[in-house]
Amino acid sequence: xYSLTKLSRQLWKLERTSVRSxxxxxxxxxxxxxxxxxxxxxxxxxxxxxxxxAAATAPEPPKPPPKPDHVRLKIDGREVExxxxxxxxxxxxxxxxxIPHFCYHExxxxxxxxxxxxxxxEKMPKLAIxxxxxxxxxxxxxxxxxxxxxxxxxxxxxxLKSHPLDCPICDQGGECQLQELSMVFGSDRGRYYEYKRTxxxxxxxxxxxxxxxxxxxxxxxxxxxxxxxxxxxIGTAGRGESTEITMYLxxxxxxxxxxxxxxxxxxxxxxxxxxxxx
Length: 278
Prior knowledge:
Order of helices and strands: HEEHEEEHHEHEEHE
Structural class: alpha+beta
């Protein structure tokens, strides 16, 4: 009896030991599988993240060279490509950047005397005349810096110093380039309280009415007469405040079939049509 009881106890202990070892082995197996799963998942994530990191750190491909006879430059931080024979103002216009100007005209030679088209060029100590400056490869141009805005405001202030404020009765009112640019780039008040200068009107023929007090000396009419009409009778006379556009010979007038075109070229109301004189 005692031996059977002892034997049953031994069997019970053996069973308990085997059951315990079974559960321990089972837990170890499950833990190993989960660890392997985590390792495989992390390995897959890291392997999938490697191409993204490599793509993010990969260097940018080299830019293609510019077209033949073209240069690449920056205008207000935006890279553009323009013909090598262009000027800065032409490059800005091609890029959709408006540069205010008075004397510049695409069909006439460059005068560069109004100073309204000044821009800032990197590594240049002073502002540059955009209508007379040729483009160069790698050039960086700024058209709206505080220096540029201040220079435009100063140019307009000096022009309005001698320009009569008769816009309500001027035939060019509402279509005047000086009026428009003064509203956009000029100051909201003036600092000049002296009398404005007056200039005698000239006779330029049966088509052109002249109000020379309004003239801003852009010389568009002078260059058109010489370069297009082939008449070298109009020019600049005097110096300083006495400067005026006039005929070299007072008894002559603008004798050309193309003389009426200077009315459309004039940016202000100095040259208007006699036919529509009020």
